[in-house]
C-alpha cells in the first residue's frame, strides 16, 4: 500500500516549515479515494517493475511517495527527468500552474480515469459475477442483472461506442487478462473474458477471504484463457462414471418404483465429481477419506463411490438382510460402509461413509472427529495431509440446521481442526416443501461458510466438466491452505 510517512512539512517553492507535523504522502492527496486506491496500488506495482509502464506524472508521484517527500503530487507541466536522479524532489508548481490546462494536456487524466473505470468493472465481476452466472439447470431463479448494476459497462459511463476502444492492462494490473502477445484488449474483449471467467456455469465467491495470497491463488486458477481442457481419454472416464451414476438411478426407479430411495436424479454429476475429488486428493497425499451425507443420493454413492456390492443394496430393497448382522437393522439409506478403493494413480485409499440417522447434519461433527482421530494415530497432526473429511449437504439443511454452523466453527480451533473439510451441497432449490425465499434470509444457502473464510463455488450441475474442475480445485485448495472449501451444485 502507498506508505504513510512522518516528515517535516514543506512550503511551496521548497522552503521548510519550522514545525514538524504528521503527514501521509498518499492519504492527503485529493484524487485518492476508496474506489481508486486498488487501481493506484496495482499501478504502483507496475511502476516498481518497469517505471516506463506508467505515465510520467505517475512516475513522479510514486518516486516522491517512495522517498517520503511532500507534496508527492505535481502537475505534469512541472515534471523533470527522474532518470538522472530518482531521489530528486520534483519542484512544487507555482500558483499559476493550477490554472485550467489546455484540452490536450487534460487527455492523460481522462485516459487514466477510463482505465480506472475498467479496473472497477473487472473488480465488480470478480466480486459479484456470480450474481449473473448460469447456475440453475431448471431456470427457476432467473438471472437478474438489475441486482448487480455494477456489472454493466454503462454503469461506469461507457457507451456501446466505447466497446471497441482498446485498453492496455499492463504488468501487475490484472495480469490474468493480458493478451498472449501483451497487446491491449478492447472493452468488448475484456467484458467477454469476464463473463466467461466469472459468469458462466461456475460462480465464485472469494471476496470475504482475508488472506490476500489465497485470493490471488484463486484468481490465478480462474483468470486464464482456458480454465480446464480435458483430454479425450479423460472425457471417456468422466462419461463412464456419469453413465454408472445415471444407470443406477434408472434401474432402481424401474425395479422398485414404490420404494423410498431418495434418488440422485438431477445431480448425477455428483458421482464423477466425487471420484475426481478422491483421485486428486490421493495424488496430493491423502490415504484416508471419511464422508458424511444425508439420504439423497446415498445409495448411489454407496454403489459407485464406496463400492458396496449392488446385490447387498438390492437385497435390502427386497426386505432380506444378512443374518450375521445383530440387532433390528436399519433402513438402507442410513447405512454406511468402509472400503479400500484403488485409484488411477495406483495408490489405495481407505474410504469410510459414516452411518447416520434421520436427523439431518448431526453426522458432521462425527466425521470431523473421525478424521481428527485418524490424523492423531497417523502422527499427522502437524501437516494434516493424510486424512480428509468430505461432507455432503442439502441446501435447506445447510442453511437451517444449527449443527452446521457449530461444526464449521470448529474448523480452525487447534484441538478440533482437521486441516480443512470439503463441503458439497446438493442444491435441490427446495427444503422438503419450502421455497428458499421462505426458508433463509441469505442469498445463498452456503453463506454460513463465510465465517471461516471458505471459498464458495456455485456450479451448474448440468455442466459435468465444471463440477469436475470444482472438485479438483477444492482438493488443491485444501492441500495448500488447510482450509474448508464449499461447492454448491
Describe the model.
- Keywords: Magnesium, Metal-binding, Mitochondrion, Oxidoreductase, Thiamine pyrophosphate, Transit peptide.
- Its main location: mitochondrion.
- Its cofactor is thiamine diphosphate; Mg(2+).
- The protein is of the alpha/beta class.
- It is built from 13 helices and 12 strands.
- It has 3 domains: 94 residues, no CATH class; 83 residues, TPP helical domain (Helix Hairpins, Orthogonal Bundle), CATH 1.10.287; 257 residues, Rossmann fold, CATH 3.40.50.
- 35% of the residues lie in helices and 11% in strands.
- The strands form 3 sheets. It has an 8-stranded mixed sheet, sandwiched between helices. The chain has a two-stranded antiparallel ribbon with strand order 1-2.
- Strand 7 and strand 8 form a beta hairpin.
- The longest helix is centred in the N-terminal third of the chain and has 26 residues.
- The N terminus is likely disordered.
Amino acid at each position: 500500500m502507498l506508505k504513510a510517512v512522518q516528515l517535516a512539512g514543506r512550503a511551496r517553492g521548497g522552503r521548510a516549515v519550522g514545525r514538524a507535523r504528521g503527514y501521509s504522502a498518499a492519504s492527503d492527496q485529493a484524487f485518492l479515494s476508496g474506489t481508486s486506491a486498488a487501481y493506484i496500488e496495482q499501478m504502483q506495482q507496475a511502476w516498481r517493475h518497469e517505471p516506463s509502464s506508467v505515465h510520467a506524472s505517475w512516475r513522479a508521484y510514486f518516486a516522491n511517495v517512495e522517498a517520503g517527500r511532500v507534496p508527492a503530487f505535481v502537475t505534469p507541466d512541472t515534471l523533470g527527468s527522474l532518470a538522472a536522479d530518482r531521489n530528486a524532489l520534483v519542484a512544487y508548481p507555482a500558483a499559476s500552474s493550477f490554472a485550467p490546462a489546455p484540452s490536450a494536456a487534460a487527455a492523460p487524466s481522462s485516459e487514466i480515469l477510463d482505465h480506472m473505470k475498467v479496473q472497477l468493472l473487472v473488480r465488480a465481476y470478480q466480486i459479484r459475477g456470480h450474481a449473473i452466472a448460469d447456475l440453475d439447470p431448471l431456470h427457476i431463479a432467473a438471472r437478474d442483472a438489475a441486482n448487480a448494476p455494477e456489472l454493466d459497462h454503462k454503469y461506469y459511463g461507457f457507451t456501446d461506442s466505447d466497446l471497441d476502444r482498446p485498453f492496455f492492462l499492463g504488468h501487475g494490473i490484472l495480469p490474468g487478462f493480458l493478451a498472449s502477445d501483451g497487446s491491449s484488449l478492447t472493452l468488448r474483449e475484456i467484458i467477454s473474458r469476464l463473463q466467461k471467467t466469472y459468469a458462466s456455469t461456475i460462480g465464485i465467491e472469494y471476496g470475504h477471504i482475508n488472506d490476500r495470497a489465497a485470493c490471488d491463488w484463486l484468481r490465478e486458477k480462474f483468470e486464464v484463457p482456458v480454465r480446464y481442457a480435458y483430454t479425450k481419454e479423460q472425457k471417456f472416464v468422466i462419461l463412464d462414471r456419469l453413465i454408472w451414476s445415471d444407470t443406477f438411478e434408472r434401474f432402481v426407479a424401474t425395479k422398485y418404483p414404490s420404494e423410498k430411495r431418495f434418488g440422485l436424479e438431477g445431480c448425477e454429476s455428483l458421482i464423477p465429481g466425487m471420484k475426481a475429488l478422491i483421485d486428486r486428493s490421493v495424488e496430493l497425499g491423502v490415504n484416508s477419506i471419511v464422508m458424511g451425507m444425508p439420504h439423497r443420493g446415498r445409495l448411489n454413492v454407496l454403489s459407485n463411490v464406496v463400492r458396496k456390492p449392488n446385490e447387498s443394496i438390492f437385497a435390502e430393497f427386497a426386505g432380506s438382510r444378512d443374518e450375521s448382522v445383530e440387532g433390528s437393522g436399519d433402513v438402507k439409506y442410513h447405512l454406511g460402509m468402509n472400503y479400500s478403493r484403488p485409484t488411477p494413480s495406483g495408490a489405495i485409499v481407505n474410504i469410510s461413509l459414516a452411518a447416520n440417522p434421520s436427523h439431518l447434519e448431526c453426522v458432521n461433527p462425527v466425521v470431523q472427529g473421525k478424521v481428527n482421530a485418524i490424523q492423531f494415530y497417523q502422527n499427522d497432526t502437524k501437516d494434516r495431509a493424510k486424512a480428509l473429511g468430505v461432507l455432503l449437504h442439502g441446501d435447506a439443511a445447510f442453511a437451517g440446521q444449527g449443527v452446521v454452523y457449530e461444526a464449521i466453527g470448529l474448523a480452525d480451533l487447534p484441538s478440533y481442526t482437521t486441516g480443512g473439510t470439503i463441503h458439497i451441497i446438493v442444491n435441490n432449490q427446495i427444503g422438503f416443501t419450502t421455497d428458499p425465499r421462505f426458508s433463509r434470509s441469505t442469498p445463498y444457502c452456503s453463506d454460513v461458510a463465510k465465517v471461516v473464510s471458505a471459498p464458495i463455488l456455485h456450479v451448474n450441475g448440468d455442466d459435468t466438466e465444471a463440477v469436475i474442475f470444482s472438485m479438483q480445485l477444492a482438493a488443491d485448495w485444501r492441500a495448500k491452505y488447510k482450509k474448508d472449501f464449499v461447492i454448491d451444485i
